[in-house]
UniProtKB/TrEMBL annotation:
Lineage: Eukaryota, Fungi, Dikarya, Basidiomycota, Agaricomycotina
Membrane-spanning residues: 12-33, 45-66, 86-105
Species for this entry: Rhizoctonia solani
Keywords annotated in UniProt: Membrane, Transmembrane, Transmembrane helix
UniProt-recorded name of the protein: Uncharacterized protein
Length: 110
């Protein structure tokens, strides 16, 4: 079980850190939404959409952790197959990354 401990330990630390950062993101979104109400509608809705997408991503991460460590505890054959939430989370990460980088490129260009 040593190999599984190392793998799931790292995953658990990643989930805890991601959830902590999601809490900070939620606070920043809340402060932005009420403090910078003079920003354009595009910027405000963009922030809200990114927050919603990150919420879904955090749910997928927690579900993936639960699936591999609770539902399939001591079932090493479950590791042979990707969970739907893991696949969904990877795709969401790519979409969020693209959106943020496109937003920064737009800000730098204009």
């Amino acid at each position: 079980m040593g190999e599984l401990d190392a793998m799931f330990g790292a995953t658990y630390i990643g989930v805890v850190l991601s959830t902590f950062l999601y809490g900070i993101l939620t606070l920043q979104t809340y402060i932005y939404w009420f403090k910078y109400d003079h920003d354009g509608a595009f910027d405000r809705w963009f922030v809200l959409i990114l927050w919603a997408m990150d919420t879904i991503q955090s749910i997928c991460i927690c579900h993936m952790q639960y699936h591999y460590t609770i539902t399939n505890y001591a079932n090493p054959t479950a590791l042979q197959f990707n969970n739907w939430s893991l696949n969904f989370e990877v795709g969401f990460t790519a979409i969020i990354t693209f959106m943020v980088q496109a937003f920064f490129a737009r800000r730098a260009w204009f």
